[in-house]
């Protein structure tokens, strides 16, 4: 079957499942008092990224087994995806908000105290290593792929500070990655997420729920895995440099302030709210 038809089927399938599943997940989180304060100090359901894990897993498994090609890569993605989601959910539920940034979690670890953020970083790194060892042809490529997956995994989390912002960054990055990829076989992984966001994004934009770390982490992880699956070494090096620059900027400057000062970025950020 034509890969473009597969992408459309993937998008439609995840859209349908999302429309069915969203009210169930939303009400479950709300009834269980799994709530957090948004930037307006309103209590809303958090961890709606749980919807992402369920829908993406179902869609990718069905499409992957139908295609019957590179099934090991697809299963590696799903195992890593579910693990990252699980640790992200743990961070949402019992994470220590007093410990900030990767440096803070590393310091806590060496002081003998494991934080959910430190656990998340460790599991994320392990998953990146396993995937990279399987798909890479040299030590240099292993290191490159580990860094790309790890930094992409944290990327969306840096922007998840206002309604809809994380989803918009994911969509923009997905389109850029698709346009620069040398292999469109794995596009259905991103198209499946587009279907999920068709249902999820409107309620996020209205600040009625938050995706949580579980959502932002698996969005970033998906971008990272797609990048290493489909791009050449040279292009991945460019992405790695961009990711490093973004991470360094985030250590010293607020992206919210940057967005507020730029009229075009501010327009994109507020679009749909």
From TrEMBL:
It holds the Pfam family Glycos_transf_4. The keyword Metal-binding applies. Its cofactor is Mg(2+). Mg(2+) binds at residues 157, 213. The keyword Mitochondrion does not apply. The chain crosses the membrane at residues 5-26, 46-67, 74-94, 114-135, 142-159, 171-198, 210-231, 237-256. GO terms for biological process: cell wall macromolecule biosynthetic process; cell wall organization. InterPro entries: Glycosyl_transferase_4 (IPR000715). GO terms for cellular component: plasma membrane. It is found in: Cell membrane. Keywords: Cell membrane, Magnesium, Membrane, Metal-binding, Transferase, Transmembrane, Transmembrane helix. It is a multi-pass membrane protein. Signal peptide: none annotated. GO terms for molecular function: metal ion binding; phosphotransferase activity, for other substituted phosphate groups. This is Phospho-N-acetylmuramoyl-pentapeptide-transferase. It comes from Anaerosalibacter massiliensis.
